[in-house]
Design goal:
alpha/beta
């Protein structure tokens, strides 16, 4: 590892597919650490729930619902060299960007801050509490619940626009797309001529409850300083094809109406944060009543309370949306035989109320299960989608029981991530705005194959760096 040089801006990447700690590890939790003369700060610190391995002790599987991984922070004491972290910026509230923030509290200044949108600040609390509930060992060396409480006390919501967070450091934050409350950030080092961009997870297209990212237009129109270094990226979606929410939403509406007219109960599996609410709004606008179950209920309320934070956000309307209020309410919905639509977690059918819906409805031809999220190969949704291709499909439950599948199971694919062409357009916009000067892009948060494809697309405009674990990168121009 290189030694940090005084008076320079340097970066250490503790996550984002640079730290492959586990054979089931995918994109990797995002974590970028910046060390500079005017501030030490962190761009996201995520964690992930991942499947247990075959050699995981039985007691651990029984004690904890999930295995978790976080970024590699082992080098932080050496990197800080007696200094402390001034602040953390959270791009948005998904677990792979915020779950591990409590693990940084030991390196934090007493008056340090955690910044982000009001949505992110509120949902962050839920992520921490879910982690304490399902995988508390992630925080076992960080004072557990007391570390989380300390972390929550340091939150401060940022308004959109520019703010001098510390002398010589202007922070520009605007709409990132992806989910409500997601932002991108440009760190403007006034005295060093460096503008660092972190796109956060991003999407250029609009969804029912969140407009697309304003980043490219903001750069083109001079609303923000033009970046000359990119340190945070989103290559979650490897596609080159343009995605638009509306045609996929129309296909969902068509199928849901068809099933309702056949008298069926439609159970939609969706991620709790954004997918649930955007699909519910899609159906609500089509005049279809929707029941919401699982973790999406609390997040719906947070969206509702913070919709006015951004003037470009649409209103969150709860008419036509009913929250499942209790276990008894859920059971009544299952048993009353009336056609209806229920959106619930988990998005990949692993856990949450979806487990109960599957156990009750898979053997019933009057039920339809629709996956709307990314489906990993080992998920229950993937297993079911494969099983129903057989002539007499069945599935084995965790307790060994076999269920004959008579319900319909299908997937309608949505995404909340931009594709690689969006990054290509971003880099070309920066290149042109900078008068044809090349910039440097540090590629994180995506699979290596996707990064290689991106690097080839943008090689005329930027020098791409495939960050390596354990390396410190000098960003000073």
């Amino acid at each position: 590892m290189e030694i940090l040089k005084e008076g320079r801006i340097q970066a250490y990447f503790g996550g984002g597919s640079t730290f492959q700690s586990h054979p089931n590890h995918g994109l990797g939790p995002k974590n970028v650490n910046i060390f500079s003369p005017c501030a030490n700060f962190v761009l996201d610190a995520g964690g992930e729930f991942i499947p247990w391995t075959e050699d995981t002790p039985k007691w651990m599987k029984e004690a904890y619902r999930h295995m978790t991984v976080g970024p590699d922070l082992a080098l932080m004491p050496e990197l800080l060299n007696g200094q402390k972290i001034d602040f953390i910026w959270a791009s948005h509230s998904h677990a792979d960007h915020v779950m591990a923030i409590p693990k940084l509290m030991r390196y934090f200044k007493r008056n340090g801050k955690i910044y982000g949108s009001p949505h992110t600040m509120e949902i962050m609390r839920k992520v921490f509490m879910d982690t304490l509930n399902f995988s508390p060992y992630l925080y076992k060396d960080d004072d557990g619940i007391f570390g989380v409480i300390d972390c929550l006390a340091k939150r401060e919501a940022l308004e959109l626009g520019a703010k001098e967070l510390l002398p010589g450091l202007i922070w520009h934050t605007r709409i990132g797309g992806h989910i409500p409350g997601a932002t991108y950030a440009i760190a403007e080092f006034k005295n060093l001529g460096i503008n660092l961009l972190d796109t956060g997870d991003t999407a250029s297209f609009s969804m029912p409850l969140v407009p697309g990212s304003s980043l490219i237009d903001d750069i083109r129109l001079g609303r923000v300083p033009c970046p000359n270094i990119i340190v945070g990226t989103d290559f979650t979606n490897p596609s080159r094809e343009e995605f638009r929410w509306e045609p996929v939403g129309e296909e969902l509406i068509r199928k849901v109406n068809l099933y309702l007219n056949e008298g069926k109960t439609v159970v939609i599996g969706a991620f709790e944060n954004s997918r649930t609410q955007n699909i519910a709004e899609t159906l609500r606008q089509a005049g279809i009543k929707v029941y919401i179950d699982g973790g999406g209920r609390e997040i719906y309320q947070i969206y509702y309370e913070n919709a006015k934070w951004c003037p470009d956000y649409p209103e969150v309307i709860l008419d036509g949306i009913e929250m499942v209020a209790s276990v008894q309410h859920r059971q009544k919905l299952l048993e009353d035989g009336e056609p209806k639509v229920i959106i619930t977690t988990a998005g990949m059918f692993d856990g949450g109320p979806m487990e109960g819906y599957l156990e009750y409805g898979l053997s019933n031809p009057k039920f339809v299960f629709i996956a709307t999220s990314y489906v990993s190969p080992r998920s229950k949704a993937a297993l079911l989608l494969e099983a129903v291709k057989e002539e007499n499909p069945e599935i084995e439950l965790e307790d060994g029981r076999i269920i004959k599948i008579k319900a319909k199971v299908e997937r309608i694919g949505f995404t909340a991530h931009g594709n690689v062409r969006d990054f290509e357009q971003l880099v070309k916009t920066i290149y042109e705005t900078n008068g044809g000067r090349r910039i440097k892009s540090y590629l994180v948060h995506g699979m290596l194959k996707t990064k290689q494809m991106v690097a080839e697309l943008v090689k005329e405009c930027t020098d791409c760096v495939f960050v390596e674990h354990g390396q410190v990168y000098d960003l000073t121009i």
